[in-house]
Amino acid sequence: PETSSNEIIKYYQDNAEMEAINYRKSVLAQALARGVESKRQWLEALGSSCSADELAELLSVARQTVNRQRSKGLILGVKLSNGYHYPLWQFIEREGTLVAVDGMPAVLAALTDVAEVTSDWSKLQFFVTPNAFISPELPDNEDITPAEALRLGHIDITVEAAKAYLNQGTA
Fold first, then answer.
1. Which of 33, 80, 138, 158 has the most CB atoms lying inside 10 A of its own CB?
2. Measured between alpha carbons, how far is 66 from 75 in angstroms, rounded to an integer?
3. How far apart are CA 43 and CA 168, in angstroms?
4. Helix 52-59 with 63-71: angle, nearest 10 deg
């Protein structure tokens, strides 16, 4: 049987459409895989963390107090599938009591108000990624993260790094 030119054209169009669909599926699958891997890396960067109930017990306060502190920008919590988790690096022991590290509210405010970083995951990324803005100010700590700088008492430079965060392109 003879094949018309229209049938041949239709055959190639159908194959081209299928290839395009398969390509789009492949690109989407790759993007989803990158997203899963990125979140896995940030969960690792989160480090030791605890739930709101666990943090409330550690701080000797009600769970609602922990949630209120997070919503007011006094402490950082990131939402996971089972609720908010709180990185423990943001707390220190002072006179036998666990408290938020000095400067934490100021840095969180700078990230939100000045740099317009609203995602808790983006805030976490800021805190756990070595920061080029901080390193020159603390030459003995070449790859220091904002979380480490804050724990060492370098509040002002960490606040300035937060304000400059989006303008740096990367932390």
1. 158
2. 8
3. 23
4. 110
